[in-house]
Design goal:
The protein has about 375 residues and is of the alpha/beta class. It has a domain of about 180 residues: Response regulator (Rossmann fold), CATH 3.40.50. Helix content is about 35%, strand content about 15%. The chain has a six-stranded parallel beta sheet with strand order 2-1-3-4-5-11, sandwiched between helices.
């Protein structure tokens, strides 16, 4: 080796050694920059159900204890307050901002665009960006089954879905006017799969409205209410109506007015996102959805008193959804800046009546089926 070649080789070796040393020092002094080390922030939608907020708070506390990370939890009631809260967190030292709910989608996407170096995760939203990921439960699967079951057992051919979307008694607003959510469309689609002539009524979640629904000959209601609540039980028994409930836990018993109980666990989304962060899987512009294949996340449990024939038909519908013979909603677009579900798709009239099966149903026919993890 010539003197010049030896000199060049030594310079390169010294450069590599210096780079290794610098990397090691950066790793020692900059561990706080690693997203898996936190701290994190969780913004809760004050308009969501109390049970969902409780589940997410409990999961954040559990993850904080298990991973030794700090969680800042903020409850936001009004969309007007969200921008200030999000911008403050985006400028802070938090390494991930988790935001609950679809109601905040538009503003969350805007803030993610303003702060491209901050990471955001939407829990149950619809929007994506290069620094915004989406983790959601396929609530539309549960709504489709609830709509199917409500129409199947209804004698009056009039059913209702009580939802917390839209203006309620406290003046909170939901989705933009005229844009139904995917779960609402799925409920109607499932109902008309069982009974093409069924009439579907929508109302805010409020047991005080049960008598008014009964006056409209509604005899089955799907609502995110806990069957164990004495107020709920009294309202349904007095109105001689039947309920398909939606509670965080399985009912201890199924009285004759309870047809079935749905269960969804949004805490699984927070846990899955944190696991992906730890495993370096998390990235922006990514959607992960959890459906009926994960009964710990999403399931509809029928009453033991349900007719064996109807119970078997219900299981057949579940199998059809899992096998993509029934497509509850179109596949997500997965593009930054656009909703992962398209308003106006999944029309109820496009699905065949109960008993008719085809490889593809609905306006989404021919599209790839949504992932059901």
């Amino acid at each position: 080796m010539t003197r010049i070649a030896r000199s060049c080789w030594l310079q390169r070796a010294a450069g590599v050694a210096g780079l290794i040393a610098l990397t090691a020092l950066t790793g020692c002094g900059g561990v706080a920059d690693a997203p898996e080390r936190g701290p994190y922030a969780l913004l809760l939608d004050g308009a969501s159900s109390r049970s969902e907020q409780t589940q997410l708070r409990a999961e954040a506390q559990r993850q904080s204890d298990a991973r030794k990370v700090t969680f800042t939890i903020v409850n936001v009631d009004r969309i007007e307050d969200l921008g200030e809260q999000l911008r403050a967190l985006a400028r802070s030292d938090v390494r991930m901002v988790f935001v609950q709910g679809e109601r905040f989608d538009a503003l969350l996407q805007r803030i993610a665009w303003e702060f491209p170096r901050q990471r955001f995760t939407s829990l149950q939203g619809r929007m994506l960006r290069p620094n915004l990921a989406l983790y959601r439960l396929r609530e539309e699967d549960l709504s489709w089954l609830a709509g199917w079951l409500a129409a199947r057992v209804s004698r009056s051919h009039r059913i209702a879905r009580m939802t917390d979307w839209g203006p309620d008694a406290m003046g909170r607003s939901g989705l933009p006017e005229g844009v139904p959510d995917a779960a609402e469309r799925a409920f109607t689609a499932g109902a008309r799969n069982a009974d093409p002539n069924v009439i579907v009524v929508s109302a805010p979640v409020d047991v005080a409205r049960i008598p008014a629904l009964a006056q409209r000959d509604v005899d089955v209601v799907y609502a995110a209410v806990d069957p164990a609540d004495p107020t709920v039980a009294a309202a349904f028994k007095e109105a001689s109506m039947r309920l398909i409930g939606h509670a965080p836990t399985r009912p201890a018993s199924y009285p004759d007015w309870l047809v079935a109980s749905g269960r969804s666990d949004p805490a699984l989304l927070l846990s899955a996102a944190l696991t992906d962060i730890r495993d370096a899987v998390w990235r922006g512009d990514l959607e992960r959805s959890f459906g009926l294949r994960r009964p710990d996340a999403l399931q509809l449990q029928p009453s033991p008193a349900l007719s064996p024939l109807i119970a078997a038909e219900l299981q057949s519908r579940i199998d059809d959804i899992l096998a993509a013979r029934i497509q509850v909603a179109p596949a997500p677009q997965g593009s930054a800046g656009r909703a992962t579900t398209r308003p106006g798709s999944g029309a109820a009239s496009s699905l065949p009546p109960s008993g008719a099966h085809s490889p593809t149903t609905g306006p989404g026919a021919g599209e790839p089926a949504p992932a059901n993890h």
